[in-house]
């Protein structure tokens, strides 16, 4: 039996996975959690083979959770189950050696197939994920131009400073710094501060 733990902040997703996995005779969804911290606590006391997790979640996002699982529970395999096939997010998943990456738009059969393949020791990135990666790679990348202030904020974000620390250093309000942070995420098409930093490094913005 393959013991699976699901982590997603949407109850309907947990319910959907329960319905799908109940149809499999060799996969058991042990439990579902709405945030990464609760899931991490449960991993300490339960025997879990695979964790299926979303990327964007409160308290502890999927990428951060996956890194902690990899560090503290190296035998537990990781499958991202998300709406995002953004190239940068997939790269982050690959960088931390996530065994699987499937989209919520993938079929029920593919979800089960991914779990079975990963449990056998294979990596599994769904066809739709791979297709979107190549689609993004083939698109010409527009030149991103940042203002002097945006570059200053970006460089400090990359150094790990909080919005409050950046505000103090640049003599700005915290809300202004947060506005710059959100604008940078929107401009680069990234999901969060960590993917923003990775994108900036890869594209020589810092």
Task: Give a brief outline of the structure.
It contains ten helices and six strands, in the order βαβαβαβαβαβααααα. With 206 residues, the chain is of the alpha/beta class.
Topology:
Layout: E1 2-7, H1 11-21, E2 27-33, H2 36-43, E3 50-53, H3 62-72, E4 77-82, H4 87-95, E5 100-103, H5 108-119, E6 124-125, H6 127-138, H7 148-158, H8 163-170, H9 174-188, H10 193-202
Parallel strand pairs: 1-2, 1-3, 3-4, 4-5, 5-6
Strand order of the largest sheet: 2-1-3-4-5-6
| CATH homologous superfamily assignment of the largest domain | Response regulator
Supply the number of helical segments. 10
Shape: elongated
For the largest beta-sheet, the strand count, sense and barrel status come to: 6 strands, parallel
Class by alpha and beta content:
alpha/beta
Mean pLDDT across the residues is: 88
Modified residues (4-aspartylphosphate): 54
GO molecular function: DNA binding
Keywords: DNA-binding, Phosphoprotein
Domain HTH luxR-type: 139-204
């Amino acid at each position: 039996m393959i013991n699976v733990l699901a982590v997603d902040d949407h109850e309907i997703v947990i319910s959907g996975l329960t319905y799908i996995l109940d149809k499999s005779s060799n996969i058991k969804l042990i439990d579902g959690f709405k945030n990464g911290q609760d899931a991490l606590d449960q991993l300490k006391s339960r025997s879990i083979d695979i964790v299926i997790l979303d990327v964007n979640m409160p308290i502890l996002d999927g990428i951060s959770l996956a890194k902690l699982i990899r560090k503290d529970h190296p035998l537990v395999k990781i499958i991202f189950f998300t709406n995002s096939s953004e190239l940068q997010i997939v790269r982050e998943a690959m960088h931390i050696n996530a065994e699987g990456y499937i989209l919520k738009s993938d079929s029920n059969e593919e979800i089960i197939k991914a779990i079975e393949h990963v449990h056998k020791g294979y990596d599994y990135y769904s066809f739709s994920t791979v297709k979107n990666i190549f689609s993004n790679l083939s698109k010409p990348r527009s030149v991103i131009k940042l203002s002097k202030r945006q570059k200053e904020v970006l460089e400090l974000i990359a150094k790990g400073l909080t919005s409050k620390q950046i505000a103090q250093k640049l003599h700005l309000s915290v809300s202004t710094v947060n506005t710059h942070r959100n604008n940078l995420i929107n401009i680069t098409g990234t999901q969060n501060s960590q993917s923003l930093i990775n994108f900036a490094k890869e594209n020589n913005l810092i």
